Amino acid sequence: MKTTSSILRVLVVALIGYLFLNWIGTTKETSAFEERYWLWGLYGFVIFVHISGEICIGALQRILYQTLSPESKKRYDEKVALKKANQFSWIKNTYKAALGSKAIDEEFDIILDHNYDGIRELDNKLPPWWVYGFYGTILFAIVYLVRFEVLNEYNQIEEYEIAVAEAKIEVDKWKKTAKNLVDASTVKLLTETSDLEAGRSIFTTNCAVCHKADGGGGIGSNLTDQYWVLGGGIKNVFNTISEGGRSGKGMIAWKNELEPLERAQVASYVLSFQGSTPAEPKDAEGELWVDSE
User: Fold this and answer.
1) pTM summary value
2) Crossing angle of helices 260-271/233-243, nearest 10°?
3) Which of 81, 80, 58 lies closest to 10 in space, CA to CA?
4) What is the pLDDT of residues 41-73, one digit of tens each?
5) Could you tell me the domains of the chain?
């Protein structure tokens, strides 16, 4: 039991230390607590000191115990046994107080005159937790009545509209960073190496057979010049990949084969061919495109 108590104390100290250090270590102006290594060091030092103290105190107690006389050991053991027996007594006392019931030897104070074939009835009071909970519901009802019926603070329809507006703001904010939710109107040119590498892999697997690996064009158009059949720029290229090329002779639509993020990655990779020199460039097709973005 002592070992368990020591472990619980260590865990409590660890939790309190973590919460405190996280509180003082994370602000809008500073980096997150997980990135502030000096706080981790201080946190570990506190835990180390506490565990070391538990070990040293336990060892010292064992040494001192061996120096006691038999009578002192007996008194000490009895004291420890009594302490263990009563260590959770406050829980039992609190539980009994919450019930508000009488002990068996005190029931004569609350026994009623009713007698049903030897069965007597007790006049126990309602448990305090129930009584105070009931009072709490009355107080809540009064506050609710004044707040919403007298002062007309707001109603359920207004609360719903506020919640929907807040949710829309959060969704719009999330969509700005959710690459896989892009469409032709919101897609942006991706420049990160990981995105371009992913786009290159998809292009090599699905597109190079028609446009060639260097973008010079074959069955498909030349992707290295500034002439585009269906318009250039990230939005037009993304839309062409999604919806397909010219009816009857263009490429197929890839919207059912590739996720929005994958189409954005391919479109960004395709635009990286601009200005390069392919080995066998195909003649220009379409109209000259000047990107205005």
Assistant:
1) 0.45
2) 130
3) 58
4) 777 777 788 778 778 887 888 888 788 888 888
5) 2-87 (no CATH), 193-288 (1.10.760.10)
